[in-house]
Design a protein that fits this description.
This protein has 177 residues and is mainly α. The chain has a domain at 69-137: Arc Repressor Mutant, subunit A (Orthogonal Bundle), CATH 1.10.10.10. The chain is built from 6 helices and 2 strands, in the order ααααββαα. Strand 1 and strand 2 (125-129) form a beta hairpin. The chain is elongated and about 60 Å long.
Length: 177
């Protein structure tokens, strides 16, 4: 008889703050191994925090739309890159053309995308956002920003919000490397 395993419970709310220096008997950030250790710790914690935040923002942006993450990814790609063929979208999203065809069919069913002839090659069709799709994207962004603004307002003090704002240029600099 096999024993049924359950996933460990994930605690609600923010993670406990991590002491970047560690216990008093460990190497500090100025010791020989310290900077590398603090960089590794910061990398782990930053990745985990941003992963949770990204998932939460995706949930808040999708609301009750019934769209899958794959469908949302295609809408976002069309916003960023503009109209594209189904095969180009499949390649960009790294999925099989058949999978992209199913994703596009669902998006068309919701009225979020449409097709038009490619002006450079009349045999091909380009997929682009419809007016409804553009409105969905705008509503989704607005919902995410409103949720985040409320969370910052209700969950952090003014000093903590100032700390978040002060950290943003550093995080952006990491992102540009």
């Amino acid at each position: 008889m096999t024993e049924k395993r359950t996933a460990p419970a994930i605690p609600e709310g923010p993670a406990e703050p991590v002491d970047p220096v560690g216990p008093a008997d460990s190497a500090g950030p100025n010791d020989a191994a310290g900077p590398a250790d603090s960089a590794a710790l910061a990398a782990r914690e930053l990745r985990a925090v941003f992963s949770r935040l990204r998932r939460t923002l995706q949930e808040k942006g999708q609301g009750s739309s019934g769209l899958t993450p794959s469908q949302t990814a295609v809408l976002n790609r069309l916003i960023v890159d503009g109209a594209a063929s189904a095969s180009a979208l499949a390649a960009a999203e790294r999925v099989r053309p058949q999978s992209m065809a199913a994703t596009l069919a669902a998006l068309e069913g919701h009225g979020l995308v449409g097709r038009r002839p490619d002006p450079e090659d009349g045999r091909r069709q380009l997929v682009d956002l419809s007016a409804t799709g553009l409105e969905w994207i705008a509503d989704s962004r607005r919902a995410r920003e409103e949720w985040l603004a409320r969370a910052l307002q209700d969950g952090l003090t003014e000093a903590e919000r100032a700390t978040v704002l002060a950290a943003l240029p550093l995080i952006d600099r990491l992102n540009r490397r």
